Amino acid sequence: MKGSRVFALLLPLALMALTFAGCSRDPNVRKQKFFASGQNYFAQGKYAEAAIQFSNATDIDPRFVEAHYQLAQSYLKLRDWQRAYQELSRTVELQPENYPAHIDLANLLIGGRNFKAAQDQIALLQAKQPDNPLIHLAVASLLAAQENLPGAIRETQKAIALAPDRADSYLSLALLQIKDNQLQAGEGSFKKAIELDPNDADARMALGSYYASQKRFAEAEEQFRRAMLAEPKNPEPRGAIAHLYLAEGKRAEAEEFLKQTQHDLAGDSAAYRMLGDFYYATGELDKATDEYSSLAHDHPEDWQVKKNYTQLLILKNRLDEARRFDDEVLKSYPNDSDALIYRAQIQIREGHPSNALPTLQTVIKNDPDNAVAHYHLGVAFDQLGQLEQAQSEWQQAVQVRPDLSDAQLALANLALQQGDMSLLEQRASQMIKQQPGSPDGYVFRALSFVRRGQFRGAEQDVRQAISVAPQNPAGYVQMGNLKLAEKQYGDAEKAYQQALNLGPSSEDALAGLMNTYLAEKQVEKAVAAANAQIAKLPNNSGFYDLLATVLFNNKKDLNGAEAALAKSIDLDKNNSDAVIKLGQLQVAKGSTAEAIATYERAVKDNPRQVQIYILLGELYDRQQDTAKSKEAYQKALEIDSNNALASNNLAYLLLQSGGNVDEAVSLAQTARRGTPDSPNAADTLGWAFYLKGYYGQSIDLFQEALKLAAKSNRPDNPTVHYHLGLAYEKTGQSALAKKELERVLQINPAYSNADAVKKMLAQLPS
Where are the alpha helices (DSSP H) in 61-114? Predict the structure, then answer.
């Protein structure tokens, strides 16, 4: 009996175990468990963890519409727009009547500037729920994106009329009114939103940002602190306070506040990353890198830390370390767009832009609207010498993201390189429109005005640049440039010195200060200024480069200049400007072999630097080493097949050394297309045609070369006259041939081919 009672007790327990085991394998139970866990994480603001749990739920049941929608909300919080779009699309596919999902889709499409698709979503919503205030807000967003602010304001007011107690509607209205320059009305709307919901951190943050833009710093800080009290675990108000301190010139206070934030919110990735991001934003790359090194050690599983640290390592040119961290991310997430872009950046910096092309094109294939990928693809094309493709990619980047400052700067710099000041003004005005609080657009527009002598307009923009960013040295540098152009040397000195006080590492500021002293014939002051900054920042390669330039050009101190350039290169082997100057200085000292050695070392560190290969080619040609000269020019053309100077020099070398004339013609035509105003390119192509027997065409080109030289005030070139004389002789124009050959000896009686000239003159009929 006793045994049977034990069995009787065990049997129900066994049945219970079987029941629970069955429940744990039930997919409906498991998906709900993941869903509940995701909701819990979402409520705590842990959106990445929530996304994982919601994704687990949809893996179990691909038609679990609530999980798809919540997964979309998590991605929206994480600003992962592409995945959010995919999940919202799946949501409305499974549940067409999910109107909140349609609204989210419309807003995402507006943000991506896909206005037609957004309008389709809105039309559906208006047909189904014409009195939904959220739909009127979506319409307002679409109109605002299309620059129709009055229409957007009217739609927002309709939303308020339908639901007058919604704080978010007043917040939207306030933002539109501020954008429409209705400042007083906008401030009133902000306050109404806060009155309706005093704990609305978003409204307080927006009002604080408005106050900050008006330099009402005390009121701004009050709103940010109230937002911090409303959401003590939210790091954004703390970040806003730090930015406010920085705008007030309270850098030390900002730094200490962020250190405290890191302590208070130790478990929040966004919070503990703020200090490193602050160092990066203020240009302190060494501090930023050290901070992220520490974070990477303390938070080895934080992928955002790894990615940010990778970007810093790339900027510091610590490419092997950057690759290691980037590979860790890509091993777990092979299609991570950021990590692929970092891989491309490493490839570009290592001198392999052609390898970066497929990497970036993969990103763009997966995400056609990835503006950062388009920007870096433009950088790769730029390094390959394909400027049209580079410009196209940069334009695509700003079309997708008009506020992408790197792409805007690239387009502005391209206009500057092309010497097109009207285009530069246009680019700068676009930058100002997109980022009125950044000094960059004002600085570039001021530069375009200075180059055209429009000093009044330049000064207005410079003062605005200083006003919006008083702690940024860029505005003061441009003020110095303006005053130097106006020959107001005292004011120029003050402006450049202010820039150096704010940004001690600014090479532009130091160069401007030194140029001002040189304009005043105060060479010793220029040297002293360089040495003063070197004493403060002894590891700045650019400062030694600037010092060397003055020592070489103004003091004729070749040994001092050589030592400074060597130090500059030792600090930064990628400083191609210093490398080129060192080689030129060594040639000036009569040491061509030493210059060749300098350039040969340099191309190992700078394998994509076309100019160094060209200089090598010229030096080998000077030593009559035709094979090595040809090899150097060919390497330059492997990097940039359309480089006019390398094409011209290689073509002439082939013609002079008995090389392939057809190849030389093709190269000379490339040079002529690239530099139509160059007398050398015209002469080289003419000589190639002469050797092909096309004497009439060669005469036209030699005559053009002489006209171009005269137009640019270049010395009369005996070689062009010699070539023209030979061509005239071939066409039976003896008198003209005699005139040109006699001109050769008039210009230079010791001309290298003087004997051949004299022999031909003797043979010509008198």
Answer: 65-77, 81-94, 99-111
